[in-house]
Specification:
With about 190 residues, this protein is of the alpha+beta class. The chain is built from 4 helices and 9 strands, in the order E-H-E-E-E-E-E-H-E-H-E-E-H. The protein has one domain: Gcn5-related N-acetyltransferase (GNAT) (Aminopeptidase). A hairpin with a 2-residue loop joins strand 4 and strand 5.
């Protein structure tokens, strides 16, 4: 059984997460951001960078001191407002820039990152979390309480697939349900 250290990343660790994002988006998916995109997404020094990198709260999953997964939360002034009209307030958070090393996909990394960021958002008074995802991810996310908002958009006119906007109402009860569902899945495996 693999053990992971899940934590909020420090400013010094964020470039490591940006390199993991570069590895996934550029090297594995061969994705290139549109020039002059609304979020300032760009590749720089083998890192995926954008306008929100310094205000986002980043989380990482480490296995044997190696970063194997990451994503970040943006609170209030969320990125997706540059692409779609959605209801927001000071209690809204957006989950973005998710990446897991190929050899760790299908493990508990993503779920554990989700629980830790969920907990962080609740502790900071957030009541709603948006998650822009692709169709494949949307199907899996509904099992964990995410709801389809019905909003579809493209980050760029040339994107081959629409982004589906999911929302997760945040409460301690829903966190408990999420955690229990994960724990039961783990116990069945064990």
């Amino acid at each position: 059984m693999r053990l992971y250290n899940i934590r909020q990343l420090s400013a010094i660790e964020i470039p490591e997460a940006q390199r993991l994002l570069y590895k996934l988006y550029k090297e594995e998916l061969n994705w290139s951001p549109a020039l002059n995109n609304a979020s300032g997404v760009r590749y720089e020094e083998e890192r995926l960078r954008d306008d929100f990198e310094n205000t986002a709260i980043w989380f990482g999953a480490y296995h044997k001191n190696v970063l194997v997964g990451c994503y970040r939360l943006i609170i209030s002034d969320i990125e997706l407002l540059r692409y779609a009209t959605v209801p927001t307030d000071k209690h809204t958070v957006e989950l973005t820039r998710m990446a897991v090393l190929k050899e760790y996909r299908g493990t508990s990394v993503l779920t554990l990152l989700g629980i830790s960021s969920y907990w962080y958002a609740l502790k900071h008074g957030c009541t709603r979390c948006y998650g822009p995802v692709r169709k494949k991810t949307a199907i899996k996310s509904v099992k964990y309480g995410w709801q389809d908002t019905g909003i579809r958009f493209k980050y760029d006119i040339n994107d081959p697939e629409e982004t589906i906007l999911l929302v997760l109402p945040l409460s301690y009860i829903s966190l408990l349900k999420y955690f229990l569902k994960y724990t039961l899945k783990f116990l069945k495996f064990w």
